[in-house]
From TrEMBL:
<dbReference type="GO" id="GO:0003677">
    <property type="term" value="F:DNA binding"/>
</dbReference>
<feature type="domain" description="HTH cro/C1-type">
    <location>
        <begin position="6"/>
        <end position="60"/>
    </location>
</feature>
<keyword id="KW-0238">DNA-binding</keyword>
<dbReference type="Pfam" id="PF01381">
    <property type="entry name" value="HTH_3"/>
</dbReference>
<dbReference type="InterPro" id="IPR010982">
    <property type="entry name" value="Lambda_DNA-bd_dom_sf"/>
</dbReference>
<dbReference type="InterPro" id="IPR001387">
    <property type="entry name" value="Cro/C1-type_HTH"/>
</dbReference>
<protein>
    <submittedName>
        <fullName>Transcriptional regulator</fullName>
    </submittedName>
</protein>
Length: 148
């Protein structure tokens, strides 16, 4: 069930195996193995796949027929316009600074930013790190500059 649903969700998002692999920091071969039922993802990978594909882990595992839990499905009913989404980002100076820098970055820099972000999220989950407030996008950007 997982192999079929993973392939279905990936295709529905218009992603290649390589594209999905990059988003979850693994290889095309690993995604292929999951889709061909040669191996199963560990729990943390299953969670990342579900997050990236915007489906629930229960749906991927075949435990439910709805791709998203009812509360999450209701959240997606009201689609915001692109203008509303952009305005939301522009209203926050940290978001504006980050978005402006990201949009001007080269493709290689954008890949590196995404890799850093996924690594950071991956590191925080196993350690159950929950911040009382989110770090500012400015702070994240400055941290990325230090790495380079």
């Amino acid at each position: 069930m997982l192999s079929q649903r993973l392939r279905m969700a990936r295709r529905a998002k218009g992603l290649t195996q390589e594209g999905l692999a990059e988003m979850v920091r693994t290889t095309k071969g690993t995604i292929s193995n999951y889709e061909n039922n040669h191996s199963s993802p560990p729990n943390d990978m299953l969670t990342m796949l579900a997050d990236v594909l915007n489906v629930s882990t229960d749906w991927l595992l075949g435990r439910v027929d709805e791709q998203l839990p009812p509360s999450a499905a209701n959240d997606h009913k009201r689609e915001r316009t692109l203008d509303e989404l952009l305005q939301e980002k522009i209203d926050d100076p940290d978001d504006y600074y980050f978005l402006d820098g990201y949009l001007e970055a080269s493709e290689e820099e954008k890949k590196e930013i995404r890799r850093y972000w996924y690594d950071l999220k991956k590191q925080m989950k196993p350690h159950h790190v929950k911040e009382s407030h989110s770090p500012s996008l400015y702070a994240i950007t400055e941290e990325i500059k230090k790495i380079k």
